[in-house]
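pinned: reference chain
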Amino acid sequence: MDLAHSIKTQARVLGFDLVAIAPVGPSPDWERYRAWLEAGRAGEMNFLVRHLPLKRDPRTLLPDARSMILVGLNYAAHLDPELLENPARGRISMYALGSDYHKIMRKALIRLDRWLTQRTGRSTRGRVFVDSAPILERSWANRGGMGFIGKNTCLIHPQMGSYFFLGGLLVPEALPPDPTPQLENEWQTFQKDVVWRFENGQIGTCGACTRCLNRCPTHALLGPRELDARLCISYLTIEHRGVIPATIRPQMRNWVFGCDICQDVCPWNRKRHIAQHPKLQPHPDRIAPPLLELLALDEDAFRQRFAGSPVMRAKWEGFMRNVCIAAGNWGAPEALEGLAHHLWHSPSLIAIHAAWALAQLRHEAGVQVLEQAAKSTKKPHLREIIAQVRR
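pinned: its structure tokens
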């Protein structure tokens, strides 16, 4: 058995669902990525700009790297649509329903690297990457033949769809690479629909389908493979740290962390395989939890409920901001008590969105609370928050 085949077998033993090998060199798609950043479409994710030079070539991270072992880990689950779409419940993106994938994948990739060093005798370590390292994982996985880039900007595999995490390992061994599609240049992958021919003869393409573009409620997908993160619900609920524009809040519906709409509507995800990894099984407390429960979370309760979950990325203030918006979109007077508490006692970021949500409650249930607060409060910032909502 050759080394490349043994590596793929071992990667699957360690729990990965997809494995591909690519030769290391200048990063595919780097110029398009740079243009995307220069257009300001990354929003407040300034770390992406800082990492731009490093992403040009993986050898800036590991100078003697000659091969890249790319892996995919399935996180798909079957969930009750009626539960998810219930406006009284907060929806969390599927990828965050289990344990934090960074730790799961990093640990397994370190084990894969140790296994490889035992076979080759090298004394140095490879370089593991799972989101945190400045590597264009999706573009490299595309180059390695793992899938094609869909119009929703996700990497799509013909059997697994797009519900899988990406990561990998840079190594100094020269391994035989997997075949890649014959394209004139990487830019074409984003400029027109690409027919992707897999090793087994299957063809992957979006064809004339535009479901993801049509169904994005905030129109974050400006066109095929063109995403403006500043409008994306995933970005707004996770990475954005400030006030969410009032014009966008109604389109966020009941999403409190992330968004799956552009993947949910994708035909390639209709027959998705369900994740087998035990740590990626959906946690019962995270499958569309009631908004009233979420509104009642203080910082300690938030940390306890979501410990070890990607939801921690939003932090308590950001998460409660999102919950308040979802409660406003729900509009039920039952949310009044929780929203009023956040108006009076939470930091300004949360209070701003609580005030907006109170104004959305049916039968003007929250309007009286806002009026009473405006009259009785001695806090200038609170009066200003309420004034903005009433304008």
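why pinned: The CA atoms of residues 7 and 326 lie 45 Å apart. The two ends are 72 Å apart (CA to CA).
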